[in-house]
Amino acid sequence: MRLINVETLDLQEFFGASIPPYAILSHTWGKEEVTLQDWQDPVRRIRKTGFAKIEGARRQTRRAGFQWLWVDTSCIDKSSSAELSESINSMFAWYNRSAICFAYLEDFVISGTEEDRSTTARVGSSRWFTRGWTLQELLAPRDVHFYDRTWKRIGSRNNALVKQIEAATGIESDYLMGTTKVKSASVARKMCWVSGRRTTREEDMAYCMLGLFDINMPLLYGEGAKAFVRLQEEIVRVSTDHTLFCWQWQPSTPRDWASLLAPDPSVYRHSRRVERKTDDGRRHETSKRSQEVSTYLMTNAGLSIRLPVLYTWSGYLVALEARPTVNDYTWRNEFAQFWLPLYGEQRADQLYVQRQAVPMGPVILDYSLHEFASRRSIIVRKEQAKQTSANGTSWFASPEGAQQQSDRLYGCFFMFRSSRLRDRWLHDATSDVSREAVISW
């Protein structure tokens, strides 16, 4: 780890336990940033526009009583792909271990004092809150001190600005202030935090989240959207959090998308209130046989997983170990659970399935439905198979325009205990020219 000596402006490299206490700068990149190569030449570095904010950070570091400062533009050799990869994989830890973090908002100017709420209320409009990389820079440090373009102090994350930051980012104040650990947040919730952010390089939308998920993986610039899929495959490898699969179809989602893995972070936009379902001792007695631990892995054919399965008219419902937050105003049933509609086919004892666009995401049903479900091994395809009988069938009879309503969709599922019973139902229904049926219960 290279650090800038704020007294001499010399760069020095440290390793492991020898790393001294240091301040760290969080900022958005602009024109003429000072690179590591620029820093070696004292004349060239001061001519760069980006030197002014480093000088401001240097003054704040000295004022805070520290000798060392880390700035990403000047302390990483980006001409070395190996060093760049190591640095990006270490970034979250570096921000987390910093003694103090300065967030520089180049596009924001404060008027009046720090207590002037009419000004601080606008802090969330800064570009800093829209970038992918600054998410981990917001969450990893012990605290973040914000400064405007003139290096006038705006406030701190843990105190004066917590409500404004929560409103701007959708991140609950408990996570911002550290009373709830970021690592305890569900995968879907973390994805939601980044869903509205942007990066210059498409791959960086995945790479900027490595630290949030405690994932290490090599960087492959040029892989495009595959980087985000690769990130999810790494999460699958180390996590049992089913909220990863709780995303909603968006207009930008490829129509032929088949996988349970998401195509990009934007599909988690409405997943803020999704959490893992754990055994809290309040499960229905009828569902005890479904308490088997779910293990899964990525194979060459797709995601292999065992889940409780219900047979529906045109496909399957699988139970995810995920639920809406208990205090969610839209669903207060403590036994609510997310079930994911899929379609596909059965070959021997194996189900080969894929996602479909309608409904747009998992549906909320009662946990007691486990009584009618059987735990099955399924393969979720990576790519869409040829047309199946379920394709084009709407799961819902919903009001016009309901596709735009992400939180409330209503419909009716016909469920069967087995595929044989479902096939018999479909055969009898389609072979009867009168198309009449009687349902009794």
From TrEMBL:
Residues 276-291 have a biased composition (Basic and acidic residues). Residues 271-291 are annotated as: Disordered. InterPro entries: HET (IPR010730). This is Vegetative incompatibility protein HET-E-1. Residues 22-106 form the Heterokaryon incompatibility domain. It comes from Colletotrichum tanaceti.
